[in-house]
Amino acid sequence: MSAAIAELQYQPHSQRHLTLVPQPMPAAGAAAPQMHITRRGRLARAVAIAFAIAVLAVAAVTMVSPASAAIEVEVQRGQTLSEIAATYLPNLPLDRAIVAVQLENDMSSTHVQTGQRLLIP
Q: What pLDDT is attached to residue 34?
């Protein structure tokens, strides 16, 4: 609340002016006037708290959810990465399937060796 209240005074020239009306000073030991939050302020506070809770809930669910299940495959003699990708990821185009296998296994090339174990996403 402000230290002064505006009071409307009637002037003889039909002009209205605002004047400041002084308020008494609180006593030395008296508590300061308490501030009150408006309805809009309470609504803004509630929306901010709800938003923060929603963000934390989404983050918690994302962290708790298990990683995508990957299948482990051993490379057989004569197999290529493209054959493995085509066999285990038939729903993807071949180039995307190869890239998915490379990303899952941190591979920088398409070369595979017999006996190598690959994770298929």
A: 73
Tell me the CA distances in angstroms from 70 to 3, 74, 100, 117, one per residue in order. 69, 13, 11, 12
118: Cα within 13 Å, side-chain hemisphere: 28
**Vertex 16: Cα angle to 14 and 20 (nearest 5):** 150
- pLDDT, one tens digit per residue, over 82-101 is 999 999 999 989 999 999 99
